[in-house]
Structures are given as structure tokens and as C-alpha cells.
């Protein structure tokens, strides 16, 4: 019979009644190429704070969720809905008469222990090698645990999941009614925390921190985790009970063989079963396959008496000369895949070749007629399952443990490239058909991904383009991301720029929905660049809208700066950013040691600038302000270099007032000081009592003139009338409150005047007598009046030129 998969021209198919609607649509797949393109399915979802519109034609569009839409907590499913969903999570029923299930043997002790631990709320890890009957034990435990938890018993498959995120979404979808919502991580964790159920997780492939995340997210759930010994072990803090599942005993193995063959075993077959148990460690899968070998042997040997008596006809498939078939060898019993595959039908062998090309994944039985080219090929799955070559995994079937390797060695993988290309083209048509729901595509995700990985670039681009919107609409986003990445790589290799831009846009939208902003920005920018090169205006606008949402999310994630405070500024820590403020600091210079120089230094806050003159701290008393502003010992002024005026910071208002008051008071005090200093340096009053004499040349103190006082110099004043002449032997006491003038020459100290009135010496009113100096010195006499200090402006020199100006 001609094979029709992947052909563009319509091929007539025999009119048969399909087993289901999916079978009819799959069987008509090759003839659908000449039909008009189906209407695109546009699905709107709520993903966190966004509204996602999945458009298979122009790409997905994302926008912020409108106020008042979504965000409400969904309701939980009732018992009937959970039961129907649990039945849908099991592998599909196969066409034809139902095959008898293998008996459940020697597992009662483990079954009771698991039910007891789960009833106490404990989580258990069931460890056993592949083919040890873990799935059958989970089915028995699920039947015993019905009604123990408020949310019932939930069956999940962990095959292909290395992270806990997708399993949490699957658990959420099994308990809550939310068909058009995929919550973000925060909402997801908040809702699954309230789930109280017994979760049976088969084919677990994760451990360590990922398993801890799953257990911490659902504290009200009790888990039964079925895994193989090579699966990563859980962490020490997981507190999981360990139950190991071993092989069967000799008697149980013989009983399983007799149930599979439907007759008692002979002595030779019983001995062969004992040797097989020793070689296979009593795994139940090996004895299911051994029972299939014995059934095929019985058919070959014509064990029926009626067949021995009848003459073989011309149209019978049984050969005319039947040869006796012996028992399989021990090696054939331990690895029976090749021998079993050689004795099944041609359609079953074609299905095995397709499964080898898809990495062990067996397509749904409704797809086999289109893939194999035989309308009765859907019965091949039941035939292979009865031989032990297939095993149930979640909602599908795949090759049993070790079967894929044995078939590859037998040559079943020689046509893997052709089979994968055929499967990719078939799934590209099927996933894009309007009658196929996204949930149905999600159940076939593993086979679609396997076909995508093994197909050529052209078929891979076509399949990824049609399957990606279906995975997005079904909320199976892990498969959506894998399809998009495979499609982007295939489009790059094939040179399809438009398809490559589409895949990058979808990856950016997916990353934005999941909160990965850096990845979303990179993917959207790549998509915008490619669409700009293609002059795709509509696609560029859609990409820029999504990129604007990324920018808004990035800005929303930045912490708001704290408000300004009126407290005193705190010194900033080293290494923090600060504002540059100009302050005045002393600069070391040879010409001007105290010249302030403007320097820009980073400070944490603007603070008042205190002039640095002679102290490291700001003055606190009025005397310190006077001392710093007007030093008593000024140094000679030196020409300072011209420097730009420093920019002074804002100062408090009270300091200029204090400085003004201090300046006024300082002027008064300084005038008094200067006046007293000038009084102490007046020339001596003559003996005649007229006044001091001013001469152009100094007069010797020993001149003996009439205007001089014995024992004093010529510059000393005459004693008052009411005082006695000072004694030259006593030192002169300094006047209180005065400091010595550094600009005057030292004077001879005089004695303190006494309280008695001295006798005056008469003198002439004319000019003074001549001394030993040949040059006459004119003098001017004035009345001897004590000087009265008055406040005057600051003089320009210490010694006045005219003594009468201070009188």
C-alpha cells in the first residue's frame, strides 16, 4: 500500500469509519493541502498584569490589563470535575477489545505502607528501577486514597521537567477553574499554597533545590514521588520518607508468566523462567515481555489440534511447512525487543520505526494511519503495548526502558531522518488546523518537539510556526519556549528573515509575561531590527509597543528616592555618590601662607563655610571672634597673588550681625588703646609749668636745664603739683589694660608719684637756656593739663605728628 504522508497532491483513501473525530481529521491530513486555509484562531489570555492576545498570523500582542478585568481568585473544581480531569490525565483508550491487565502481585506490603504515610500527611519517595511496576503501584494507591484529602487525588507526570514551575502550573490547572488565565509567579505561589491534595507524581526527574521548591510551595499537599535510582536525590531538609521497590520472587514470576500466556507452564518453561528471574533481577516488565514471547511461540508451533488436522489452504498466512520454534535463549529473554518486533505486524513495525525516529515517543494512535499509510494502523499501539514494548507515561505512550537501544541495534533507526521529516510535515498540518484544540496539541507536545528536533530546517520552520500559537493558547509555556527557540534557529539556518523576526518577537513577549525583562528587551530589539530590514511597519509598531512595556516595568522596579529631610546632614560614607560643592580651604603657599584658595570637593550636603584663620574649629565666644577678625599683633602686609574670588556658600543670618557688632565695639576699644599708648609717649612738661617742649633733636637727659627733672630723661613728663618726684630706684608699674607698643623705643621707667605736693622751681618765661649742644632747640610751652582720652578714628600711624591733636 502506498504511503501518503507528506504528499502535496490529494490521494484517495478507503472509506472507513474512523474511531474518533481526531482519527478522521488525521487520516484526511494529506488531502488537506488542496483545501482553503483555515480561519486563524485568536485566543485572549490573562497573564499576570498583562492581557495577551495570541494571533497566529501577525504575532502575539501584549498590553496592560484593564482595570476591573481579571485578578479575581478562581474557584476550585468539584469532585465530579476532578474525577473527569483525572481520567483525562490517563493514557487514552485504545481501539479494539481491551487487553487484560497484568495481575498486581507481591506489592501489598508497600501498598499499605504508602497509604498509611500519605494518610498522615507525609510525603514519600518511591524508588525503583525502570520496569519494576512503579506506575501500577501508583494506580493502586490512588484508588485507596480517594477521599482522604479535601482536594482529592491528583495525578501528574514529571517526565521532562527539571524545574518546579511547570509542575506548579499543572497542579494549579488541575484544582482551579481558570481556563483563560495563567497567573504570574506571585499569584501562583499564593494560590497553590491553599491546595490540600494527595499528589501522585510519576517519572520524577528533578531533585535537590528544585524538589525543595515544589515541596515548600505546597505545604498542605502530601506527595508520592516515583523515581528511578539514578534520579538526583532530594536534599537533607526535604524530610521525605524513602520506600524502595525491588523485583519479584520466583513464584510470583511464574504466576505472572502463566497469567500472560493463559496456560500453566511446562517444566522446561518453569526452569527457563527461574533463569530469567536471576538475569533480570525479577523485574515485572521482563516477564510481561517473556509472556509475549511464549504466546508468539505457541502461535508459531501450531499448538492447536485443529490446525494440525486441517490441510493448510492457499489463502492462509500460515506457512505450509511449519517448523518447531524452541524456547528463546536467556539472552533473547533478557533483551527481547528485536525478537518481539520481528513477529508483530507490518504496521506495528512501521510504528516502531517512527517511535525510534522521535526519540522513543509514540504518536497518538489517531495519527498512525496518516503516518504509516494504513487505515488500520491505529491498532498497532495495542499490539505493541501487549508485547511490553510500550509503557504509559502521563497521557501518552513511549518505548519501554531499554527497547529504543535494542531497536536501534536491530536497524530500526536507519530511516530516522525520513520518518522525522514525515512526522514534522504531518504535525505542521495538524497543529494549524482550526478543528484541533490547543489542549489536544498540548497533550501531543513531546511528539511534536521530537519531530521538530529531527526534521530538516524547512519542515522545522513550518512546524514551529504553526505549533507555537497552539502551545501559547494552551498555557503550556515551557513547550512554547522550546518550539520558539528551535524555530528561530531553523529560520536562521534556512535564511527566513521574516520567520526569524516572528520567533524573536514571540520570545520577547513570553519573557515579558514571565518577568525576565533583560531577555525580553534583547529579543524584542532583535525582532524590531529584523522587521525594520523587511520594511514591516505593522510588525515594527507591535514590537515597539511591547518594548515600551518593558521600559515601563524597568522604571517601576526602580526604588523611589527618599524625601528630603530637615535634620542636620549626616556625613556621607566613603564610596557613595555626592554633590560637588565649592568650599574655601587654606592653601599652602610661600608668599601667602594663609591665602584661601577655592577648591571643589565632593560633600554629602551643603553646610555653612567657616573661614579658617588660626583655628581648626569655629569660634564660640565673642573674644575669639575679635581675636580672629582683628589680631592684636598684625604682621606686615605682603602683596598677595591675585586669585579668583571664592564662591562662598550660604551662611546663617546671625553671623553677619555678630560680626557687625564686634566691629563697632572693636573700633571703640582700639581707639582707647591707641589714645592711652599715645599718652604714655608724650614729651616731658617743662619746669615752668607751661607745657611740653618739642625739639627737632633729642635733648640729653643730663643737660641740667631748668625744664628737666633730676633723675629722669628728657622725654619724661613733669610730676603733677599734688605728687612728689618719682624715685629713680623704683621701677615704673605698667598701666593696667595697656600693652607695650612695639613701634616705640624703650623708655626709662619712672617711679610712682607720691601723694605730697612738690615745691616748684621758678623758671623764666623765655626760651630755655642753651645746653652743650651748639644748635639751639626751640620749644613750645603749654599748660600742664592731664590728657583726657577720647574716642577717635583709627590713626594711620602709632606716633602722631602733632601732639596737640590728642589733647
Key features of this structure:
807 residues, alpha/beta, five-stranded parallel sheet, four-stranded mixed sheet, 27 helices, 8% strand, disordered N terminus, disordered C terminus
User: What's the average pLDDT?
Assistant: 74
Percentage beta strand: 5-15%
Distance between the termini: 145 Å
The largest pleated sheet is described as: 5 strands, parallel
Task: Tell me the structural class.
Answer: alpha/beta
What does the model show?
- This protein is α/β, with parallel strands linked by helices.
- 39% of the residues lie in helices and 8% in strands.
- The chain is built from 27 helices and 14 strands.
- The strands form 4 sheets. A 5-stranded parallel β-sheet has the order 5-7-8-4-9, with helices on both faces. A 4-stranded mixed β-sheet has the order 3-2-1-6. It has a 3-stranded antiparallel β-sheet with strand order 10-12-11.
- Helix 5 (165-175) crosses helix 6 (185-192), helix 14 (346-357) crosses helix 16 and helix 20 (445-454) runs antiparallel to helix 21.
- Residues 1-39, 558-616, 646-652, 681-789 and 791-807 have low confidence and may be disordered.
Amino acid at each position: 500500500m502506498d504511503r501518503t504522508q507528506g504528499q502535496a497532491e490529494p490521494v484517495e483513501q478507503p472509506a472507513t469509519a474512523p474511531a474518533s473525530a481526531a482519527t478522521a481529521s488525521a487520516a484526511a491530513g494529506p488531502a488537506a493541502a488542496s483545501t482553503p486555509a483555515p480561519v486563524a484562531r485568536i485566543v485572549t489570555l490573562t497573564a499576570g498584569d498583562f492581557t495577551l492576545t495570541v494571533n497566529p498570523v501577525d504575532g502575539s500582542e501584549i498590553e496592560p490589563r484593564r482595570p476591573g478585568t481579571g485578578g479575581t481568585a478562581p474557584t476550585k473544581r468539584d469532585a465530579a470535575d476532578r474525577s473527569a480531569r483525572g481520567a483525562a490525565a490517563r493514557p487514552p483508550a485504545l481501539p479494539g477489545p481491551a487487553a487484560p491487565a497484568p495481575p498486581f502481585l507481591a506489592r501489598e506490603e508497600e501498598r499499605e505502607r504508602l497509604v498509611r504515610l500519605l494518610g498522615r500527611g507525609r510525603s514519600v519517595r518511591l524508588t525503583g528501577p525502570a520496569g519494576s511496576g512503579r506506575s501500577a503501584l501508583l494506580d493502586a494507591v490512588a484508588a485507596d486514597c480517594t477521599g482522604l484529602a479535601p482536594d482529592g487525588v491528583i495525578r501528574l507526570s514529571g517526565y521532562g521537567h527539571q524545574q518546579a514551575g511547570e509542575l506548579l502550573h499543572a497542579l494549579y490547572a488541575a484544582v482551579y477553574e481558570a481556563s483563560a488565565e495563567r497567573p504570574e509567579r506571585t499569584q501562583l505561589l499564593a494560590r497553590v499554597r491553599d491546595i490540600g491534595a494527595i499528589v501522585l507524581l510519576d517519572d520524577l526527574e528533578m531533585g535537590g533545590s528544585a524538589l525543595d521548591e515544589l515541596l515548600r510551595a505546597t505545604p498542605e499537599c502530601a506527595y508520592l514521588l516515583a523515581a528511578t535510582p539514578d534520579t538526583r536525590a532530594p536534599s537533607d531538609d526535604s524530610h521525605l520518607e524513602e520506600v524502595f521497590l525491588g523485583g519479584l520472587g520466583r513464584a510470583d514470576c511464574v504466576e505472572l508468566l502463566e497469567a500472560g500466556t493463559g496456560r500453566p507452564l511446562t517444566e522446561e518453561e518453569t526452569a527457563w523462567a527461574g533463569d530469567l528471574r536471576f538475569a533480570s533481577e525479577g523485574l515485572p516488565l521482563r516477564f510481561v515481555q517473556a509472556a509475549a514471547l511464549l504466546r508468539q511461540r505457541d502461535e508459531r508451533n501450531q499448538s492447536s489440534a485443529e490446525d494440525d488436522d486441517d490441510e493448510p489452504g492457499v489463502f492462509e498466512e500460515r506457512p505450509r511447512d511449519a517448523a518447531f520454534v524452541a524456547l528463546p535463549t536467556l539472552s533473547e529473554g533478557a533483551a527481547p525487543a528485536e525478537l518481539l518486533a520481528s513477529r508483530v505486524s507490518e504496521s506495528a513495525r512501521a510504528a516502531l520505526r517512527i517511535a525510534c525516529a522521535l526519540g522513543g515517543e509514540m504518536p497518538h494512535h489517531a495519527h498512525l494511519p496518516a503516518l504509516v499509510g494504513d487505515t488500520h494502523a491505529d491498532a498497532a499501539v495495542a499490539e505493541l503495548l501487549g508485547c511490553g514494548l510500550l509503557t504509559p507515561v502521563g497521557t501518552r505512550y513511549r518505548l519501554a526502558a531499554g527497547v529504543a537501544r535494542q531497536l536501534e541495534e536491530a536497524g530500526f533507526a536507519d530511516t530516522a531522518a525520513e520518518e522525522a521529516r514525515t512526522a514534522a510535515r504531518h504535525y505542521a498540518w495538524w497543529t494549524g488546523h482550526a478543528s484541533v484544540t490547543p489542549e489536544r496539541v498540548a497533550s501531543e507536545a513531546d511528539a511534536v518537539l521530537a519531530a521538530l528536533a529531527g526534521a530538516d530546517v524547512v519542515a522545522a520552520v513550518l512546524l514551529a510556526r504553526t505549533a507555537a500559537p497552539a502551545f501559547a493558547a494552551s498555557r503550556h509555556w515551557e513547550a512554547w519556549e522550546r518550539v520558539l527557540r528551535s524555530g528561530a534557529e531553523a529560520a536562521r539556518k534556512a535564511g527566513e528573515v521574516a520567520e526569524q523576526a516572528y520567533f524573536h518577537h514571540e520570545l520577547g513577549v513570553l519573557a515579558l509575561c514571565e518577568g525576565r525583562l533583560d531577555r525580553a528587551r534583547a529579543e524584542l530589539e532583535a525582532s524590531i531590527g529584523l522587521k525594520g530590514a523587511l520594511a514591516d511597519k505593522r510588525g515594527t509598531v507591535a514590537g515597539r509597543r511591547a518594548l515600551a512595556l518593558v521600559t515601563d516595568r524597568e522604571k517601576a522596579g526602580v526604588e523611589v528616592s527618599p524625601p528630603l529631610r530637615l535634620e542636620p546632614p549626616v556625613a556621607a560614607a566613603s564610596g557613595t555618590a555626592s554633590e560637588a560643592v565649592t568650599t574655601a580651604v587654606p592653601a599652602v603657599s610661600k608668599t601667602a601662607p594663609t591665602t584661601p584658595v577655592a577648591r571643589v570637593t565632593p560633600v554629602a550636603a551643603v553646610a555653612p563655610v567657616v573661614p579658617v584663620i588660626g583655628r581648626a574649629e569655629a569660634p564660640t565666644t565673642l573674644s575669639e571672634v575679635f581675636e580672629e577678625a582683628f589680631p592684636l599683633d598684625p604682621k606686615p602686609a605682603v602683596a598677595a597673588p591675585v586669585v579668583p574670588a571664592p564662591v562662598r556658600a550660604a551662611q546663617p543670618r546671625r553671623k553677619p550681625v555678630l560680626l557687625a557688632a564686634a566691629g563697632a565695639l572693636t573700633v571703640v576699644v582700639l581707639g582707647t588703646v591707641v589714645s592711652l599708648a599715645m599718652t604714655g609717649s608724650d614729651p616731658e612738661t617743662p619746669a615752668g609749668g607751661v607745657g611740653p617742649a618739642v625739639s627737632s633733636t633729642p635733648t640729653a637727659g643730663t643737660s641740667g636745664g631748668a625744664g628737666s627733672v633730676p633723675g629722669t630723661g628728657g622725654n619724661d613728663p613733669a610730676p603733677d603739683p599734688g605728687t612728689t618726684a618719682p624715685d629713680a630706684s623704683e621701677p615704673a608699674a605698667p598701666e593696667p589694660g595697656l600693652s607695650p607698643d612695639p613701634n616705640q623705643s624703650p623708655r626709662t621707667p619712672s617711679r610712682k608719684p607720691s601723694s605730697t605736693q612738690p615745691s616748684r622751681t621758678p623758671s623764666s618765661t623765655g626760651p630755655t637756656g642753651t645746653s652743650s649742644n651748639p644748635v639751639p632747640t626751640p620749644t613750645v610751652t603749654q599748660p600742664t593739663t592731664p590728657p583726657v582720652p577720647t574716642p577717635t578714628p583709627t590713626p594711620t600711624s602709632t606716633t602722631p605728628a602733632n601732639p596737640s591733636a590728642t589733647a
